[in-house]
Amino acid sequence: MSIIMDDITPYIAQRIRSEREARGWSLGDLAERSGVAKATISKIERGEASPTATVLGRLSGGLGLSLSTLLARAEAGLNRVRRKAEQDIWQDPETGYIRQQVWPADEGPLELVEVALPAGTTVAYPASAYAFSARLIWMLDGELSFQEGSVTHQLQAGDCLRLGPPSDCCYINQSNEACRYAVVLSHSRRA
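RESULT FIELD:
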């Protein structure tokens, strides 16, 4: 796809801002890490200035990204619809658990996953799996027992749970029917 730079410039501005905010950084933090003046970053983020290749290189380096990755993420903003056919699906060969990547992590600070957990199935994750993101579990269909450390939450369709600090977790479907839930991840805990 050939993209005219003026078409992507607003998306570059949004991407720089969202990458900075996802890390919890101020303009000053990014300025210090990138060597680009705080006022320049502010103008770029507000769309008042177009960054040069050198400035983009410094900003991407300051964000810990390659320039290619920063531009790819900005280009992803041009296509804001992710069709079902584009969503990756994986099935656990042991449990039959189905995970559909509705919105991928590489296209922004949020990630959305839909899960179908078969009846009588348990899936456990260590605390380390939750170390770099904040998560919500939103029940779409059925019932789920969710163990978060020593606490068990009973969830039904429509319920939404915000997870606490990282701990060992277990998804348990004790019913006779599959349940479905969405997991929303915010990668704002990234360093």
